[in-house]
TrEMBL record:
Chief localization: membrane
A GO term from the CC aspect: plasma membrane
Keywords: Cell inner membrane, Cell membrane, Hydrolase, Lipid degradation, Lipid metabolism, Magnesium, Membrane, Metal-binding, Phospholipid degradation, Phospholipid metabolism, Transmembrane, Transmembrane helix
The protein, known as: Phosphatidylglycerophosphatase A
GO MF annotation, one: phosphatidylglycerophosphatase activity
GO BP: phosphatidylglycerol biosynthetic process; phospholipid catabolic process
Subcellular location(s) per record: Cell inner membrane
Pfam families, per database record: PgpA
Its biological purpose: Lipid phosphatase which dephosphorylates phosphatidylglycerophosphate (PGP) to phosphatidylglycerol (PG).
Cofactor (UniProt): Mg(2+)
Amino acid sequence: MAINTFRSRSSGATPVTPFRNLTHLLACGFGSGAAPVAPGTFGTVAAIPIYLLMLQLDANLYLLLTAALFLVGIPICTRTADDLGVHDHPGIVWDEIVGYLVTMIAAPPGWLWMVVGFVLFRIFDILKPWPIRTIDRKVAGGLGIMLDDLLAGLFSLLLLQLAAYYLI
């Protein structure tokens, strides 16, 4: 897989170039999903500047915007997955961006908490404990792509808030 294109797992498929199609560009995390290794991690890294911009928002507006990004992600991920012919292609990382934003809801300020949230989210996204794994396997399309990372974000949010409560 080249850095700027994705191929489906089916033979003879046309490559998807995330930099030429707005839907693919968003689904692929502004190109971060084109990383040759650990695209989900690079997608989560791409979420950090978005989080820093959203950090200035009122809590209600942060929640509303995060929910809107989740809802927009469903058709974006559906379209890109369909074009690739792969249910949850590793290069689709919009779900990681939203999952990280969920993790960071009402997070304490500071880089330490951003890193802790990052690590927690990556752990839940990679390990996919129940029910995340079940959702990942059973729910099709963009909704399934988005839901498992929403749950990973909610689990991470819970642990981050518990850590903040007991450590601050």
